[in-house]
Fold Flavin-containing monooxygenase.
Amino acid sequence: MTTPEHLDVVIVGAGLSGVGAAYRLREECPGKSVAILEARDALGGTWDLFRYPGIRSDSDMFTLGYPFKPWREAKSIADGPSILAYIRATAEEFGIDRLIRYRTKVVAADFDTAAARWTLTLSRRDESGAVTESTLTCDFLYSCAGYYDYDQGHDPVFPGVESFRGEVVRPQFWPDDLDYAGKRVVVIGSGATAVTLVPSMADTAAHVTMLQRSPTWIGVVPGRDKLADKVRELLPPNAAHRLIRTKNILFGLAFYQFCRRWPKAARKVLTGLSTKVLGDADAVREHFTPTYDPWDQRLCAIPDADLFRAVKAGRASVVTDHVDAFTPDGVRLASGRVLPADVVVTATGLRLLALGGIAPSVDGRPVVLSEQFIWRGAMITGLPNFAVCVGYTNASWTLRADLTSRLVCRVVNHMDRHGYASVVATPDRELARRPLLDLASGYIQRAIDAFPRQGDRGPWRVRQNYVLDAVSTLRGDLSRQLVGTRRAAVRRSDGVGRVRTAADG
């Protein structure tokens, strides 16, 4: 019987988070064997998968980028290809690209309590497409696969869509050969994807209409950060990056707190800015003033007011109504109006998928995630030696992702110092159950019940505050909620049928 390969730490996912996690582990846990398992053929995650026109970040790159790799490009709000190039350059510079095993999907993960290790069942696909199954063991498993289902988006059923003579496109699976030049385009949706697509497609389409059921809060942000440009002229790259990053973190946190504490004032500020740029108070009232308060759902950012400029120039328009049915030549609305279309883009959102679709088990028994709590936004009760990377909803994903990776390094080193073979997060008192992601957005509400819960206090509460999280994550006591099992109590197979304790050597 062949002994499976064993690694100290396995990272699932070679996107923005996975590359950052590997860097932290190599720097802060030297000597540990690390591999990144990536189901796709390339690194980059979201930024390699999504190819629709205009794809970009909705966070500034000084905070979305890595703290250890200064962002040097001109744009603060960057396009997808630039972000992908940045991730690739980071992986190559620090040798992380050599840790990635492509076309390797984790289909099952079981933790053996007696041996204190994970056994991963892997589906490997070679370049010809042939699939083989294998196993791999590791001491610690770190999921950096995000929480979106990249194989399937939210795809509502529209009556009559089969009668439509034009082309229906989903942003998640954008066809490379789509030609929309000179054509009438309807984009169904009002979230970040829609507000990105509309101005980008409007440059070449005959006209683009954004059809939304209800408005979304939109914030106008500069595509370039002039203050950042000045700072980068005066200071060395690393110092400039730290200063700009700190400035943007504090501004983002302050604006979020302003919106949550004084929603009426925030509504006034946002509608005022939109009216100033669009120049039409009635249009802002009808199409860009939601019924919910700012940051009840994630705020959409439009760099340099590109959406508003496209609308103001007449190249795009916004309609707030419901789809009644598709017709052969367009989309009929609940009001009876018909929007003529040659191309319809269904930007109706993504689906959430916990742990990238991995259903973990312990000693062969499935762990029901919805019955578990999450500690410091990373480790899950009932799952020893396991962490998940979940970014902020009110700020750049990477801010929390990097904190989580540093926490994982602290936990791994804590285990070594104390002679632990395994640790599991365990609350010391009863917790009230709250949703992991506390946003009213439809894509979250549709699937959040399948995720672990956050608690109502202390390290079991998932805060949306980077400053507080940085202090507690990097300096907090790990012993209070992490229950450890010492190596001397662990039994491991030596690969030839004999079971030994760790104390045997």
About this structure: The CA atoms of residues 390 and 401 lie 6 Å apart. The first helix runs from residue 16 to 28. DSSP finds 13 helices and 25 strands in the chain. Residues 493-505 have pLDDT under 50 and may be disordered.
